[in-house]
Design goal:
The chain is an alpha+beta fold. It has helices at residues 2-14, 47-54, 59-71, 91-113, 124-134, and strands spanning 21-22, 36-40, 84-88, 117-119, 140-145, 152-157.
């Protein structure tokens, strides 16, 4: 885990953001998740820096998380790879709650009406997360439609 902490602190420094990273003491959103959390200490950041690191619709924090997962697992055997979640000021935990609510609402709509339900405005990482959630939902499936930047997730009967 220390390699993830050190890597993220170094990346932040290269970005001109002097902030520490914590790796312990975070509630996990998904009890089945074995992700290692890398939490950027927000008390050391200005509001502008926080917004820059999160980015529009979470694009920046998603990109940082993608880089962490790619770079920190280079050369590791699949069973030795870690999954990293990059958090900043509760953004990831709050967004995961929002995604769970959106997914539950779409599932309820499809189950009650039999018609498909769209969930627009998601990043590719968020769509992937919802597709994973949908795998365990009996009688329903999800798919992505359209082209970026207007790609959306659709929940529909199987």
């Amino acid at each position: 885990m220390s390699s993830g902490k050190e890597w993220l602190e170094q990346l932040l420094a290269l970005m001109g953001v002097a902030a520490g990273v914590e790796t312990e003491g975070f509630e996990t959103v998904d009890a089945d998740s074995e992700a290692s959390w890398l939490n950027v200490k927000v008390d050391e950041l200005s509001e502008a820096q926080r917004q820059q690191l999160i980015g529009k619709k979470g694009e920046s924090i998603d990109a940082i998380q993608y880089l962490a997962n790619t770079i920190l697992n280079l050369g590791a055997e699949p069973e030795q790879q870690n999954s990293f979640m990059v958090e900043l000021g509760g953004y990831r935990v709050q967004r995961n709650r929002e995604l769970t609510t959106l997914t539950e609402e779409a599932i309820a709509k499809v189950q009650s009406t039999g018609e498909e339900a769209e969930i627009p405005g998601l990043s590719s990482a968020e769509r992937k997360q919802i597709h994973s959630l949908m795998e365990s939902t009996e009688g329903l499936r999800s798919e992505s439609r359209g082209q970026e930047p207007n790609r959306q997730l659709v929940v529909l009967p199987e």
